[in-house]
Design goal:
By secondary structure, this protein is of the alpha+beta class. It has one domain: Alpha-Beta Plaits. The strands form two sheets. A four-stranded antiparallel β-sheet has the order 4-5-3-6, sandwiched between helices. It has a two-stranded antiparallel ribbon with strand order 1-2.
């Protein structure tokens, strides 16, 4: 099945093609932790929190493909059509979900996410592999800390960083 049919732009000469539409698909693996990596995302909170975060994503031209994590961090795999509001989307997910936790769980009235986040582009050809990785977070973290995982992702994605400023 053809996704787009190029047309010959007769005004520019034979063999010149012009797409009649723009096609965009951006997949991202997002990761951030709770402030000071506190174990605040309990089994009681987790399902409702993940559903709430998914609802925030739905209000944007984006889709949440997978969400998972542990008591101290969260992973999201999202597909977003336009990068214009990418940072705004992440900011909104973090701000609204932390407020939601504080309002719905008085025990966590001081809940907060870490200041920053990790964002890693994902090719469609490996997005199923990333989904499985996110799905298996509990098992994965039996032998690996969040810090080790995050630094490994930075290194595998060839991102330069200063250890002093990664975790605050």
């Amino acid at each position: 099945m053809k996704l787009s049919t190029p047309i010959i732009n007769r005004g520019s000469g034979v063999g010149k093609f012009e797409l009649t539409h723009s096609f965009r698909s951006h997949y991202f693996h997002l990761i951030w932790s709770t402030k000071n990596r506190e174990d605040s995302i309990t089994k009681e909170i987790q399902p409702r929190l993940y559903a709430y975060m998914g609802g925030i994503v739905k209000n944007h031209p984006a889709a949440l493909l997978k969400i998972g994590g542990t008591a101290n961090h969260v992973h999201l795999l999202i597909c977003i059509n336009s990068l214009d509001k990418f940072s705004d989307l992440i900011r909104e997910i973090k701000a609204k979900s932390s407020l939601w936790i504080r309002q719905n769980y008085p025990k966590y009235q001081y809940f907060a996410w870490q200041e920053g986040y990790g964002s890693f582009s994902v090719s469609f050809s490996v997005h199923e592999k990333v989904k499985k990785y996110i799905e298996n977070q509990e098992e994965h973290h039996k032998n690996l800390s969040f810090e080790e995982e995050f630094e490994g992702l930075l290194e595998r994605n060839n991102m330069k960083y200063d250890e002093r400023f990664v975790f605050g």
